[in-house]
Amino acid sequence: MPQLDFDVASLGIIVADVLARPVDTMPELGKLVLVDNVALHLGGLAAATSRVLAKLGARVALIGNVGTDGFGEFVLETLRESGVNTDAVNRSTEANTSVTLVLVSTDGERSFFHYTGASDTVREGDVDFGIVERARILHFGGPFLMKQLDGEPIARILARARSMGKLTSMDTAWDGKRRWLQLIEPSLEHLDIIHASLEEARAITGKDEPDEIARFLQPYGIGTVVIKMGADGCYIQGDDEVHRIEGVSVDVVDTTGAGDAFVGGFLYGVSRDWSLDECGKFANAVGALTVTRIGGSEAVESYEATVAFMKERGIPWPH
């Protein structure tokens, strides 16, 4: 059996986030609105989650594409500085690096303009299974946003990873084309864990309540359904257990990347063989930390700092 050099191999979208804040109204065409701050940060479901994992102390490799442009240089430098292995990140000449323009309102809520860019050029044959073989978990962040992988290709990738003895995980995105279950269904039988926001989970399943959503998804063979509910915490349903975990109250500055950070916290717990309840509490704390500062993963500093944050808020922690 090959040596497991990585806790997680994270496959999916890699994005440069350009954040403007505060934006409470859109300017009329041809007009200008001033903002207090514009900043460049790392984003994307796969990339942001991998960075959070690395900052927490996990061994993580990222798989995906960036362009040969300046945004690509920024993304790679940020990842490497955080300890993420980028050997399987390709430089695409077909498109520039994926970019999201994030408009952050005064209360921290966001609106997005997204350019799929190089992430849309990742094909099934580009996935480095040498990296996957050296990881315990294969995580896919970016369904509905990667046209070369969506549908049957990612299902085959997940099935192959499972056949190699890997745990498989997926974090859903918003499907602007509203294909939802039709596009994601081939992958579901090959997943051990699925993460989705409550809004995404409702759109995928057509169900309203978290328990109804989990009952819809689990017959596909998914062992753990994780529903992210923002300030309301999360709902987790395993094979024979259910957890409704309250959120952590903080002053919200920017909710960008909170869901990606939550997933990073959850997978960190999975890689340490924690209980589902512990994974959920830790993930809630990581997600809450993220919204206290601008940028998707800037406020997450380390495992120790996260535990200190939990203890300050009276969250019991056994590890």
Could you explain the architecture of this structure?
The chain is an alpha/beta fold. It has a single domain (6-13, 45-97, 116-312), classed as Ribokinase (UDP-N-acetylmuramoyl-L-alanine:D-glutamate ligase, 3-Layer(aba) Sandwich). Helices cover 33% and strands 25% of the residues. The protein is built from 10 helices and 13 strands. A hairpin with a 4-residue loop joins β12 (234-237) and β13 (242-245). α1 packs across α8 and α8 packs antiparallel against α9 (276-290). The longest helix is centred in the last third of the chain and has 15 residues, at 276-290. The chain is globular and about 55 Å long. The two termini are 29 Å apart.
Structure summarized in a few sentences:
With 319 residues, the protein is of the alpha/beta class. The chain is built from ten helices and 13 strands. The radius of gyration is 18 Å and the shape is globular.
Which helices and strands occur, and which strands form pairs?
Elements: E1 6-12, E2 15-21, E3 37-43, H1 45-56, E4 60-67, H2 70-82, E5 85-92, E6 98-104, E7 110-115, H3 129-133, E8 135-141, H4 152-163, E9 167-171, H5 181-188, E10 193-197, H6 198-205, H7 210-217, E11 224-228, E12 234-237, E13 242-245, H8 258-271, H9 276-290, H10 303-312
Parallel strand pairs: 1-4, 1-8, 2-6, 4-5, 8-9, 9-10, 10-11
Antiparallel strand pairs: 2-3, 6-7, 11-12, 12-13
Helix pairs in contact: 1-8, 4-5, 6-7, 8-9, 9-10
Key structural traits:
alpha/beta, 13 strands, 10 helices, UDP-N-acetylmuramoyl-L-alanine:D-glutamate ligase, 33% helix, single chain, nine-stranded mixed β-sheet, 319 residues
